[in-house]
Amino acid sequence: MYQIQKQRTKESRRRRSCIKERKGGSMKKKCFKKTVSWALSIVMSATMAVTPVLADTFTDGSQSIISGNAEIPAVDVESDTNCGDTMGDSDCIEKELTEFQDPLFMEEDYGDAESARFSSGNDAEVVSDFYDDSVPAAQTEGNTVVYLDPILGDETPDGKSDTTAIKNLRDALTMAQGGTIYLLNPINIDNDVTLENVILRPGRANLEYMLNVKADKKVTLRNVKINNLTSENSSCIFSKNPIQVYGTLTIEETIKDGTEIGPFPGKSCIDAKNGSTVHLTGGTIQGNGKDRVVEGGGIYADHATVNMSGGKICNQIAESGGGIYAAYSIVNMSGGTISENTGGGIQAYPETVINMTGGTICENYATSGGGISVQESKVFLKGGIITNNKSVMGAGIYLINSSEMTMEQGENSQICQITGNIIQPTTSQNPNSQGGGIFMWDSKAEISAGIISGNKAVEGYDKDGNVQGGNGGAISAVGSEITINESAELSNNSADNYGGAIYVEGWGTEQFKGLLSVEGGIICNNKAKKSGAGIFAECRYEKNYMDVRISGGKITKNYNGTEGNMQENAIMLSGMYTQSSGKISLANLYLSGSPIIKGSVILSEYTDATQNTEGSCIYAKNDLSVKSPILVISTTGTPGLTAVKYENETAPENYTSQFVSEKNGKVRLEKNGNTLQWASNKLVTFITYAKITDTVLENTPKNIYVIPGEKIDSKDIPVAAKIPGYKRMGWQRISGESSEWKPEFKITEDMKVQEIWELEEPTVTISKDKEKGCPSSGIKLKAQAQHTLNDITYSYEWYKDTDIITNQNGETLTVSGAGNYKVKVIVTSRAQYQASAELSFIIPAFEHSYPYTWQSDKTTHWKICTICNEKTIPEKHTFGDWKVIKQASIGVEGEKERTCTACRYKETATIPAIYIPSYPVTGIKVSPDTLTLNRKDETAQLTAEVIPSYADNMRVTWKSSDENVVTVDEKGKVTAVGNGTATITVTSVSGNYTATVAVTVKIPVEIEKISIEAEKETLTKLGESTELKVKIEPENADAQKLIWKSGDEMIAVVDENGKVTAIGNGTVIITVTTEDGKNTASITITVKIPDEPVINKTKGFGRLKVRSVNQTKTSITLEWSKLDGVDGYFVYGNRCNTKTKTYKYQKLATITNGRTWTHKNLKKGTFYKYIVKAYKIVDGKKVVTDTSASIHVITQGGKYGIAKSVSVTKIGNKKNVSKITLKKGKTAQITAKEIKKDKKIRHHRNLCYESSNTAVATITPEGLIQAVGKGTCTIWVYAQNGVYAALTVTVK
């Protein structure tokens, strides 16, 4: 109580001083507001009096674990200060901080927390991430119930029931302590106020409304719950919308919990009146998904402004504008989500402007405009996502009645995406479903950036079951103007009927004239089941009311049809014949510039009651230039009708480089003056066979159109079917004068030609029981016929000397006389096709056949007939003279023979040996006595010496002991065969003396194959190793040096011995190669290191930004940016250094749930320094992840103040800009200054600069930008108290 009384005394003195100084009524009013705020803070402090130490407070109401308000010695504010932490000595600060940290915080692990996001301001903006309102008193959670009746309540009751209701909102908030307030009558708020940590509910079953924010008043909701449930949990019935806004209502984003408004069945949650503003930065405006309101389930805005940068509007049901309904209003959406509403996301009518630069509109449903629906209004799309919405027309966006839409690139290259929206047709409402992404009626749209992709137009059915709609996968427009240029993309959209990307209609009035201009962008990968996969344009009722003008861009890879029958189609131009007026209306195409058009352009034709035919036309400008010719197709192809029209007669001289007609089409393009007209081609119909069984089965006739006088391309002639047993012989005409037709004929008239097929001939062979006959034995012949077909009939005819042999129609015939014979085999198929084959042969004269060889014995010889085996009479041999076949020699007998002159029988006899005295062999030598061969097939000559050299017999023989190693011939020549050792032995023929040579063969063995074997192929720890071994084939191959290599040394490394060590997660291929490069092997090693917390330490201003948000004479409130993935923050600080004294940083507080902290009990007019560190709890330890730059702040009461903002007046030679583009290597000087808040600034540190990516651009302490590499980065310019400007630098 002493502390509370002390605060009251101080505040009373301050209030009396304020009363003395103020002049006039307005000053009294302002002082009264401060007094009310003071009173509220006193009451709230009293509720916390039981707490020994007052908790530090934050913007979101959370508290710190440690109170750090100890008194710090004063410093002479007039003395010069030098805090020693200017740019460049951050290491000194870190060292100073480290000295005061608990060892628990000194872990060296690194985190992976995402960078906090800050919006980049202009040259004079302070960061947008901080709250600008003052820090409120701490709130304690409570469940107190308080009844409030602003009309009938009393000032003194306890408010515990409806009979003792409180009258004053302020008192009710104090008593509720974060609990529930039941309203017995509406609250009319006529002061600026912040409602925080409270639940508001109706106190009775009927109320007019709940809250009314008066004009020019500001109400902020933080963690406030407002709904329609009474104390009995029954629904309250409101006669008006529950929240009435005439002033400004802000629903703030909070770190914990959040504001929830609704549901309010049958009512708009928020009713924004004329001149009011609703800011939605957080919280939820929710419905119950059942009860319907007429307009604006979440917000109803009339002559108002709605700003949505966060939060969510969901589950609302309205006839119009489930999320937001706006009339004569402005809706700005830069964030947040509008989802799952019935009646659409946003509906605007009339004279309303919708600006979308961010946020998401998704999964909403409406009859028209699932995402956005506007009438007589404007839509500007520069960012955000419109996705997965459904409606009958315009699932993404619905524009009608002179509305306008602009889709362009926003700041920082932001674009809007309209994706995945689907038409959901109904038979009961509007079966004519169109415009998966966008539907337009009598409106305008310019699309220069953004993506319209994955949208679908589904066909519907009327009550009679007839197909309706299903047009315009991306855009469907009636009587509207569309311009597509620059980087716009329409891709991957689909339509069940027409216009895979775009479907446009022009009607017969100026108001509903259609115009589609394609000046840039890309239309690709769209599909239409019927036609107009890229663009489908149709003109109705009157001519010249639907134009498509294309001067640039790219239309490619768009396809008509269904799976298995897809054709690339860029554009289809259509129209109609109106029977009542007798008029033909057609869409036309105007081409200029250098567009890229891939796929066909289809031109429609219509014929009126007088048989007058007209068709869509392409108008080509003289500047038209295309890379490849555009394929033009006509739906009918009436000869003489104009397809393309040029500006003059010389332009179409080389028209074939710009336009081509369909190959094999019934018509072709033909130049006529300044036009290309349709001319007829000749029709050739091919009738072909598919199968021949009992009958002939024909294929569907194939029609080929040919330019008169030209030949048919051989590629177009049908390929013959594969019909077993048959062959195609050619073609014949079945119309015209001549029946002959060949592919090389020129075509001069229409004709039909048919294939000529014949049965394949059988194959015939003749077998005989014997080759020749003799007088006592005939020859039996057998005809053997074969055919491809199994179910074939064979018949035979036999001939001798051209005369048919009667009664011989079987497959065998026995002949007994010589002659020329022939057999004819006739085959007949089931389809009665016939073919035949003949085989002729000669039967020689019938006589005995004797072989050339004789049979013989020692005295006679004879022959045997090969046919009948008869033997001739034996005859005696008739020998010729003896012939010596081996001379007799000393001690060796000779041999002689004689031969029968008839049968060649040989008779032999011996010649006696000769004996003469001789010189015997006494020994033998050989040289060299050793020999080494080093390659396969290498040879060497050995020399033998017989002793004595005059011996009678000098002959020798040679022999190898292992011919797999070496061979030797009769002359002593040795040849290497394979590795090893062998002995060559030379032996004298006379005396059998021997000598030997030792031969060694050393042929290098090459490596044929290598492979790798591993102890383990998966490593699970950082630094873990595995040994790789190489298997060499063959095993006896000569050794070579092995070279190891890792495919990714960020995953694993390998040393020269094949040892692999894990570095990081992933798979890597380890390769080994022999030194000669001829053999290589590889193995895949997987590194799976279990995920462990990784903490990235950061220092500096860019990630963790700190600033002072409030200063009094005795306190400084700090606020810092929120970082995802961290568990808390440490606050360090102390007095700033003086010339005579240095103050080291001390840990002042640990913050677990917030991003603000107030340092109290300080000296007035004194400088203090602060640093904030973020930490993450890892394995029970607090590990520092991020460290802020230091800031220096002075308390009030002195002659110096702080900066309220940083102004960048110039970058390089450009003034008042927040972004710049530089070429690599270039520089630019930043000129900036601090804008003082009230008093002049005394600097402890000059302006500082920091780059978010030094690989893109660096910045010197003096503010000089140096362009380093291609990309985009942010340069922060920040003052000593933490306010800053953010600049964007792009390097090309």
What does this protein look like?
The structure is a single chain. This protein has 1292 residues and is mostly beta strands. Helix content is 5%, strand content 44%. The chain has four helices and 115 strands. The strands form 22 sheets. The chain has a 27-stranded mixed β-sheet that branches. The protein has a 22-stranded mixed β-sheet that branches. Strands 98, 101, 102, 104, 105 and 106 form a six-stranded mixed β-sheet that branches. Strand 62 and strand 63 form a beta hairpin. Helix 1 (2-21) packs antiparallel against helix 2. The longest helix has 24 residues, at 24-47. The radius of gyration is 52 Å and the shape is flat.
What characteristics describe this protein?
4 helices; 27-stranded mixed beta sheet; 1292 residues; mainly beta; 5% helix; 115 strands; disordered N terminus
- The gyration radius over C-alpha positions equals 52 Å
- C-alpha geometry: flat
Q: Structural class from helices and strands?
A: mainly beta
Low-confidence stretches: 1-81, 84-142
- Percent helix among the residues? under 10%
Characterize this entry briefly.
The protein has 1292 residues and is mainly beta.
